[in-house]
Q: What sequence folds into this?
């Protein structure tokens, strides 16, 4: 559970916002830093700290794709599944990542090294197809590039 120190950080930030709802994302990020994801018990605890309903906190947690509601791997591979990337052969990139990692989109490898997630856009359409590993963006990806990119994170 969020410990005393993290509770103090959230409470201190409460004074910076007009309404506790404004602090939900910050509180979720604090929990995610601690666990790597946000367990249900933390949703309940954050709701209690902020004097909000559990459903209010849960709705924010499930809306944002960078807030993880289940355990994820050490490295997150984001696959841009926008129309522009799709038109630039992104589907073959997805299939190659799935083949190399032996997982499907939305899954985590058995060794917990990688989680492979879709995202609607990475904002570099002029350099598509694109993937992002953690915070590193790879543009104009070719199928043959995937193995070298993955090996950087092993």
A:
């Amino acid at each position: 559970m969020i410990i005393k120190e993290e509770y103090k950080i959230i409470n201190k930030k409460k004074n910076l916002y007009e309404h506790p709802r404004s602090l939900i994302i910050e509180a979720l990020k604090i929990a995610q830093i601690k666990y790597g994801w946000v367990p249900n018990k933390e949703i309940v605890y954050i709701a209690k700290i902020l004097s909000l309903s559990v459903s209010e906190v849960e709705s924010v947690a499930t809306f944002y794709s960078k807030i993880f509601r289940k355990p994820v791997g050490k490295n997150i591979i984001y696959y841009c599944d926008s129309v522009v990337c799709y038109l630039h052969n992104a589907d073959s990139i997805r299939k190659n990542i799935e083949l190399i990692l032996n997982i499907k989109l939305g899954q985590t490898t058995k060794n917990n090294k990688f989680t492979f997630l879709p995202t609607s856009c990475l904002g570099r359409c002029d350099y598509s197809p694109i993937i992002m590993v953690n915070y590193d963006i790879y543009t104009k990806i070719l199928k043959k590039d995937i193995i070298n990119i993955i090996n950087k994170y092993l």
Observations:
- Helices lie at 4-14, 24-35, 40-50, 54-63, 83-87, 90-101, 146-151.
